[in-house]
Every structure is written in structure tokens, then in C-alpha cells.
Design brief:
transmembrane helix, five-stranded antiparallel β-sheet, 539 residues, alpha+beta, elongated, four-stranded antiparallel β-sheet, 60% helix, 15 strands, transmembrane, YidE_YbjL, AAE_transporter, TrkA C-terminal domain-containing protein
Length: 539
Amino acid sequence: MTGLYELLAREELLLLFAVILLGLMLGRLEYRGLRLGTAGVLFAGLGLSAWLHPLGELVLAPQIKELGLLLFVYCVGLTSGPGFFAAWRSRGLGMNLACAAALAWGALLACVAGWLFGLNRAQIAGLFCGALTNTPALGAVSSRLSGTALEAIPALAYSLTYPAGVLGALLLGRGFARRRRDELAGEVARQAASRVAIESRSVEVTNPRVLGHSIGELRVRDEFGVVVSRLRRGEVDSVPNKYTVLHAGDVITVVGTLSSIQSAIEFFGRVSSERLELRRDRVDMRRVLVSKRELVGLTLGELDLARRFNAQVTRLRRADLDLIPSDELRLELGDRLRVVAPVERLGELSSFLGDSEREIDVDYVALAVGLCVGLLLARVPIPLFGTSVTLGTAGGPLVAALIFGRLGRTGKLMWLLPYEANLSLREIGLLLFLAGVGVNAGGKLAGLMNREGLAIIAIGACVTVTTGALALVLMRRWGGAGVVAALGGASGLQTQPATLAAAFELSQRSEETYVAYALVYPLAMIGKILIAQLLAVLA
């Protein structure tokens, strides 16, 4: 064992990837439907560091953890940006009120329990930071107590409660998902249905109310959520546009969800036995990849493909999601458009959109600029009640990424990352962060297991579980959140990547998890930083 310790202590990169490997293997183990998932890396680091602690302390450079956290939160922010601002308008106030109430309860419980067990104010502040897994709050407390006899105490209490804070939040989230499994399954099923249930039908126009009116005048997309992609009049096939006037006997192809198609059939006339998509001599369909950077951030309406190429976009595939196109839908790099156009225009249309896998890459200049802006925001002092706080490495990049994700692009800078690149960077960042936290905290735990330490752990666990449970209940009542959004919001309360990763897995990789996380994260981060400092001074 001595040889193993000396090897890992000397070879820092070997230690890093050994912890990641062990953690991924641990995360795949399943017991009664429960798995740690990516969070297994955290517990592998804790376990290995505590096991070898009698021989000496294992340490990973803090820059590894910081780099991982930076990549993770920045990529999450880019993904969440477009949905964040829309979600704030619909349920932001209720979700954040729930978050504030849960934090107030956690602070009150930490104070009362700490007094009963004879803990000092530094220990109470430290256990609050650890129970709610917030390193920036610990940094603020340490700065507040700098130069005093209590300066080192918050970090020790934090080290004791942090692992239980992560584990407690993970178990709470899984227990909540298990208790609400039928509702969660329904939400996941509805999301799955929205990804696959886009179809097409041929319809004969017979309704007198639509004859003599143009497709644009009838507001087909707005009223029914369908796209009219083809038209046959007599023996002539064509691609209709919003100016096309419908006549009796026209056969059109409508594309949309099953329910919207049924409504459109009732409006236009009746189902036709003809299948216009089988006639490909004059009009054909092609899937085209959006790979030209200059098109990213533009709306389909701004592209105006109907005027340029006499083409109709019938659906857009982004990541694993099929979307019915609208004029307001903004393009992202890697989107796949299904377009219907005259055969002779398809090649020209493909060249216009790019349709090249080689052109899809990361705008590294924009990525570097975005990360720099995020790190600068992380260090901007925010004055609050006679003191100042910062967003920290977790908060600054997230705020910057939310804004850049909403913008999409600025001039030649393309803020959005291709989906696969975003996902890869996000996962790599999370692995680095969890490995760094686990290894550096494990050794401290081994030396602090005494009666006072056990009391701190017990209080911290109560703060973690009751605060998270209260947040889940209030987010559903005040914020109108479903199970997926409640899981994401509770992760945002924790400001903890491990719980977010677990919630993402529980929701079967629903992006709504990230949106809800980002929705409450800023308030949770600032609130915990402020409350922790107040506890250190007043408790």
C-alpha cells in the first residue's frame, strides 16, 4: 500500500484519471434501481484519499477543480440560455421565492441546532456552507473571519458536511423521483412523444371556406401548427408558399403532430389517398445540415428560403429533438433541416446552408472570449448590506453563458457550441471537478471523526435533507414546476454539479432540468454567500 500511495502522490495525472476510472465504474453499480452515475467519481476520490490518509495526504491541484467547474457551468449556461429567459417570465418568481424560503429555513435550522450542540459561529457558518455544498460561500466566510482565531474552523466544518451534503441531495432527488415515478414517467413520455410524433398526410381541399384564400391568409402555421409542404393541382406538382391560393380539388401535404394534422384535415377538407411524396420527378425532399457559421442565429424567416429557392422547411432536427419550424425559430450550428424544393434547386439550397460535416467545429475564439468574460464577472464585487460578495467561478461563467446562449452570435463570434462538443466539454468538466473535490476532501475527513465532528455531520445532513425537501414542495406549489423542473430547481438550490448531473439522468436527459437549474442558481448562489457571512458574524 505504501508503494501505491507514493506512486499516486508523485504522479498527479495518474491519480486524477485513476479516480475518474474508479468513479465511473462505481457509478455504474446499481442497487434496487439506484445508481450514483457521474457522482461516483466524487465518492471514489473521497474513499481513496481517506483510505491512504494514514500514509500521507493525496492532493490534486486546485486548478483542476476550478477548470472542471468552469467548463461545466459555462456549457450548461450556453445550453440553458434560450430557455432561461422564457422560463423566467412564466415561473421565475415562484421558483425563486421557493428557493429563498428554503435557504432561510436552512439557516434557521443550522443556528438552532448549532446552539443546542454548543457549536460556535464559525462552525455553524461552515456546516451551512458544506450542507448546501457552496464553496464560494465558504470563501466569503473565511475572508470575513480572516485574522481571527476562528479563521480555519469554517473549512473544517465544511469538509465534514460537504460529502454528506452531496450524498443527501442525491438520495433526496432519487427518493423524490421514485415517489413521483408515475408523474415523472408521464412527463418523460410526453417529451419523447414530442420528439418523434411529427408526420405528414395528403389532404384534398374541399372546404368552401378556404377556397380562394392564400395559405398565408389562412394562418395555417399559427392556427394549426402545421406546414403545407407540397401541392398538386391537376397533374402539376409544386412547392406552395404563403401567397399560394387554394382551389377546389387541390391536394396538399401537411406536416405536423398527429393532433395538429387531424385539426388541419377537418379544416381543409378530407384525407386523400394520393401520396405526393412518392412523386419525386419535379419536387423532392432532402435533409440538409446547417454548417455555415454566418447563418447561425438567424431565424428561418430571415433566411426566406421560399423566396430564394422556392423551398419549404418541413421540420428541424436539433440534437435528438424534431421541431415544427416557424419563422421565429433561430438556427444553431448542426441543425438538420428537412426541406422540400424543386429538384433543380436542391443542390443550390444545400450549398447555401453548407451541408458539410467538416465545417461544424468549435469557434475557439468565442469560447475563449466567453470564458474570460465569465471569469471577470466571477470576481466583480457586489455590495450587499455593508459587505461585498462575488459570484465566484461557478456563478460568473454561468451568468455570462446564459446571456451568450441567448444571443447565439455577435458579429463573427459564434457563442453557441455544436451539441456534441457542448456535451463532451460539459462531461469532461464535471469529471475533473468531482475528482478534485473528492480527493482533496477525503484526507480531511479521516482526521476529524470525533464527537464534535459527528454532531456537525448530523446537523449538516438535517440541513441538507430538510432544505431540499422544502424546496421541492414549494417549487411545485409556488413555481408550478413538474417533477423534472423541480429536480432541476432543487439542484440549482444546491449549486452543485453532482446533483444536477443526477437530476439530468433521472429525467432521462431532459434539457428542462438545466433550464430550471439556471433559473434559481443566481439567487441561490448570492443568497448562500450572504447568509453564510451573516451566520459567521451573528450566530
